[in-house]
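Quick one: structure for this chain?
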Amino acid sequence: MSAVIHFSASEVAILNDYIDQLFANLKEGLAEHDVNNVTLPNLSLRLDNNGQLNLTNGVLRDITSLTRDGDVEVTYSNDNNILVLILPIRFDDIKCK
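Got it. Here's what it folds into:
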């Protein structure tokens, strides 16, 4: 599976079908290798008003419920040579511990 996109100016490409197939292949591979849990790295976020959120020892469970949740867009601007990928995802059934 491959996707080749040629941009001639500032353009947007929608890659829904490609990403849907990619996710289907990913889910199949995860199921074949019995990989359904992912250990998350520790994360510390600064919040407004001097707050802080610390996430530690995270495990993401049931990752095979990953699906696309909107249009996947790739935008390229020749003006500033920036490529932007918008990939909205969701997990239909996810458990965190």
